[in-house]
Amino acid sequence: MTEPARILVVGGGYVGMYTALRLQRKLRRGEAEVVVISPDPYMTYQPFLPEAAAGSIAPAHVIVPLRRVLPRCQVVVGEVLRIDHAKRTAYVCTPATRTEGGGDTELRYDELVLAPGSVSRTLPIPGLAESGIGFKTVEEAVGLRNHVLEQLDIASSTRDVEVRDAALTFVFVGGGFAGVEALGELEDIARYATRHYHNVDADDMRWVLVEAADRILPEVGEELGRYAVRELRGRNVDVRLETRLTSCEKRVAVLSDGARFPTRTVVWTAGVKPHPLIAATGLPSDPHGRLRVTAALQLDGAEHAWAAGDAAAVPDLTAEQPGAQCAPNAQHAVRQGKVLADNIIATLRGSRPEEYQHVSVGSVASLGLHKGVAHLYGRKVKGYPAWLMHRVYHLSRLPTANRKARVLADWTLAALFKREIAALGSLENPRAEFEFAAGTGRQPDA
Question: Which positions make up the signal peptide (predicted)?
Fold first, then answer.
């Protein structure tokens, strides 16, 4: 009896989860087994990270447990360190191999789906690696919320003017969706929180957005990008275009225009780069480090290997200019995952795979509570209607009815009751209290 083919899906993000989800729905019983390898046992719906940071959505509700939605797949928590595609073998490091000190686990496959996603693109800026804060995971979103609220506590409890100014200055680098939405949501929650401090006012805070290009939110178009700048500046956000961060050593952010800001908060959202695993595969990649794939999402020049999402340079067949590639965003990733799964099944059954093509429906962005911009289906919308469209659009794209219901409940409760303003920094060091009690650590922060 012929053994079923093994399909190895590397990555549990948009592409990985949606590929596996469609495979388990459409594969015949015994036709193939699907193995998903992911560093985390969940998929993060990143468009909701800013709202998780602001407290509008519980952090647990912006993640989708892979084992729950993929009951017919084998989910392995671990990291693929390298791939020998000639031998159809992946070398995996799991929590067990790390704990036991053993060697990497060898996992053979018949079809390979590479969807490891991307990581933050950092630059060799002095002080950035030591003091910068990312905004790509739910852990970073929760940590940033705690950090921002903690700065208000520091400013409220010190008489040192320099310490106070640094605590109340927040620098965000990157004017894309992540940077603008994170700043907008956190500025909102921090402004609200100052109502409960007797010696910190909203006007005492300084929010700075640094963008190297001449506009922000390029995905929504030039007109809405200019509107977003006006909206942010109307809230006393210092938006600096065509400017770069040159240093953030010793809690001082230095910009290319000569400005200097004493600050304890530098949030880095200036783009992403393909996951380092891509370089370790030896498979064909472009000058930017993304896997070269055909319009059918097959690796160019490598049989039985597929890729999509942030880590792949997918040709955009709907673009007017030749050689254009699909934007590495969730809108494309979700659809690419479904086409990729269908193409693998077609290949297993001896049929021809189809080419991926999708005309973008547009983009939406939140600028904080009840504020936003949207460019959907050719229509440009601003303010409250755009913010509402942002919520409706992303709620409709959130996987599973379970998560949709939980997020909707969070929004309802947030609308009916006051916002939470407590920082739970102890979550990042849960053993601090016990270590203090045992006499091996300092007294934990309140």
Answer: none
Which CATH number is correct for 5-119+273-348, 3.40.50.1000, 1.20.1250.20, 3.50.50.60, 1.10.260.40? 3.50.50.60
Residue ranges with strand state E in 47-101: 63-65, 74-77, 79-84, 89-93
Residue 338 parent element (H or E) = helix 330-348
Mean pLDDT of 206-222: 95
Two structure tokens written together for 281: 């595969």
Report pLDDT digits (tens) over 284-313: 999 989 999 999 999 998 999 999 999 999
Cα–Cα distance measured from residue 97 to residue 109, given in angstroms and rounded to the nearest whole number: 20
Right CATH number for 128-270+364-399 from 3.40.1190.20, 3.90.950.10, 3.50.50.100, 3.30.420.10?
Answer: 3.50.50.100
Q: What is the pTM of this model?
A: 0.91
Strand residues in 249-321 grouped as ranges (E) = 252-255, 260-262, 265-268, 272-274, 291-292, 305-307, 312-313
Per-residue pLDDT, 63: 95
Strands (E), 144-223: 169-173, 206-210
* Amino acid 188: pLDDT: 95
Please state, in angstroms and as integers, the Cα–Cα distance from residue 406 to each residue in 30, 297, 302, 396, following that order.
35, 34, 42, 13
pLDDT for 378 equals: 84
- Name the phi and psi angles at 179, rounded to 5: -65, -45
Question: What band does 99 get if pLDDT is binned at 50, 70 and 90?
Answer: confident
| Dist CA 210 CA 295 (whole Å) | 36
Q: Give the residue extent of every domain in the chain.
A: 5-119+273-348, 128-270+364-399
